[in-house]
Every structure is written in structure tokens, then in C-alpha cells.
Specification:
Length: about 170
């Protein structure tokens, strides 16, 4: 009986495991977070008029020039944070799907920062619709984080962490 001689002594690489349902659902939530963040940016820009009214109510002693400066600053913040938010959601979704444990930790830190931001939003003048969208984004983040820290997700991330150690 003929058996071919092995061409090399290397074992084939084990197949990359598929992400469990908990990670896949978390990734879908993260993509949904990116979409809602993009919509939030649009809502923020569409509610500029109510931003001026909110600023005026919160700061009745502002001059017209100060009000304009605060409004422009608010718009710049809306655009910058909106674009950064969309990018971070997409980055975290792709990195977590690949099994990068650092991404799971980083996503958790971002969620913590968003929690602080949501709490602070209740103390600053902001359109009600913007606050509601912010709460929706926070809830999406909560769902994703809870899924990323489930046991089956942890096993998935642990597999890739062990592969890097070797």
C-alpha cells in the first residue's frame, strides 16, 4: 500500500471558530448603533433651531453674539461627536467580531463614557428629541455590552487570546 510522504512537518492551522450567536447579535447591535448615531447626527442638525431656544432659556442673560457663539459651538460638537460615534461603532463591531478581547474591553469603556455623557445631558440644554435618541443609543450599547460579556462570548474571546500567547 502506497502512502505519500508528508511534505512538511507542520500541522495544518485549526479552523477559525465562528462567532457565537451572542457575539453576532452584539455586532448587529453595534451596526444598529452606528445607524442610529448617523440618524442622531441628522436629527441634531435638523433641530438647530430648538438648540438656540434651549440655550436662550438656559442662559437668558446671553447677548445675541454669545448665543450665536454657543449655537455654533453646539453644532460643531454635534458634527464631531456624531462622526466619531459612527466610526467607533463600526470599529468596535468589526474588532469584536474578529474576537479581539481588547475590543470587548474598549467597547465597555466607551459604554461607560456614554453612560456619563447621558447623565450629563440631563444637566445641559438640549433638544428633547436629541436626548431621546441619546437614550436609544445608550440602550443599544447596553444590549451589546451584556451580550459581549456572556459566557459563550467570553469563551470565543478566550480562544483568540490563547492563540496569541502561543
Amino acid at each position: 500500500m502506497y502512502q505519500p510522504y508528508p511534505s512538511s512537518g507542520q500541522m495544518p492551522e485549526p479552523a477559525r471558530p465562528e462567532p457565537p450567536d451572542s457575539v453576532l447579535t452584539a455586532v448587529k447591535l453595534m451596526y444598529a448603533g452606528a445607524v442610529v448615531s448617523a440618524l442622531s447626527l441628522i436629527v441634531g442638525l435638523a433641530t438647530i433651531g430648538s438648540l438656540r431656544s434651549a440655550l436662550q432659556r438656559a442662559n437668558p442673560n446671553y447677548t445675541s453674539s454669545q448665543l450665536h457663539t454657543a449655537e455654533v459651538g453646539g453644532i460643531v460638537i454635534i458634527v464631531i461627536f456624531g462622526l466619531i460615534g459612527v466610526g467607533l461603532w463600526i470599529w468596535m463591531a468589526t474588532a469584536n467580531k474578529r474576537g479581539a478581547n481588547w475590543a470587548r474591553i474598549t467597547a465597555t469603556v466607551f459604554f461607560g463614557l456614554d453612560t456619563v455623557s447621558i447623565l450629563a445631558s440631563f444637566a445641559r440644554p438640549e433638544a428633547l428629541l436629541s436626548k431621546l435618541v441619546g437614550i436609544l443609543i445608550w440602550l443599544i450599547g447596553l444590549g451589546a455590552i451584556l451580550l459581549l460579556w456572556q459566557r459563550q462570548s467570553s469563551d470565543y474571546f478566550q480562544y483568540f487570546k490563547a492563540q496569541r500567547v502561543r
